[in-house]
């Protein structure tokens, strides 16, 4: 079997770099992109700001303490999605096998493209040059035999780097690296592996696979493979991807809330956002999940409820979210709320047989048509008319340029 050649392209400090290109006065200066709400944190920081220790997820006061002359820029999500979509389209000039990993990352399988372009390094050179010329942006690229190693490689030299991990270099290159560098090893898994004495990728690969499987089940085999740099997963273009498994929205609130009526108003808004996306793509779901983060930022809980039949009407999702809320006594004011619909079924929607249900479905369809044409929440529930917040302030990591994962940008 011919060795695959996979690229992972990671746009460097993407949001901040887009803002610096849009406004020349920001170039070469420490800037941080933030959200529009009063409760925002640092979304991303320019490399000039990172030199002072400013990092994604920091509170603004903390970032200002690290870098007193930090320039804060309110993010423009439409600008980022527009730029991202154009860059992804540019990538398809070199291979049709492009998998969008996030708004600023993609995998490319160029195995069959080398007859046209020569070496992998030449493909990277051409693509980097076009992105820099067209958008003034830099990216870091990893070249490797699989997706796991390509993503690992792209993180090794930033910004504007190129790292190649060849088949014969895998062990020598990855063994000394900490396990947290592997895509898929989060902080919780890192802690569990640390308790087993596993701290580097090499140690993970050498650890007895039988013990890993007893400790982690089927995931144990996957962890063992990751430690050896093994990953057989294909690069999957959007047209070939499996149907999505969930639809969700979350919202960080402008101020902490505790009163039940305030929480219910936001739950209704989130339920409408989830339901409208589900209806647009003829999807229904049987499981509704509710997620709450408390005011201290660290405490949170999530619960889910499986219904007797799949739903996509906003009020059905809302009622399930209320039922979940009523199972828990809130410990402190609420900072963030999230609603998600899972256990999805894809089917063509038909009007109900009974009069009242049919009338309700026609009313919802009319609301959707008006909102699709004139903007979100143009027609909405009466209890939402005095709500100042409409929609999500953050681009989800699951964002895609089209399809059900393309969340409308406010």
Structure overview:
The structure is a single chain. The chain is α+β, with helices and mostly antiparallel strands. The chain has 3 domains: 1-166, Reverse transcriptase/Diguanylate cyclase domain (Alpha-Beta Plaits); 175-227, DNA polymerase, domain 1; 242-384, DNA polymerase, Y-family, little finger domain (Dna Ligase, domain 1, 2-Layer Sandwich). 38% of the residues lie in helices and 21% in strands. The protein is built from 15 helices and 12 strands. It has helices spanning 14-22, 47-50, 60-66, 77-91, 114-117, 120-135, 147-154, 170-174, 187-195, 201-206, 209-216, 218-227, 260-280, 314-325, 355-374; strands at residues 6-11, 31-34, 42-45, 71-74, 98-102, 105-109, 139-144, 162-164, 246-257, 283-294, 300-311, 334-346. Strands 5-6-1-7-8 form a 5-stranded mixed β-sheet. The longest helix has 21 residues, at 260-280. The model is unreliable at 406-410 (pLDDT under 50).
Compact summary:
The chain has 410 residues and is α+β, with helices and mostly antiparallel strands. The protein is built from 15 helices and twelve strands.
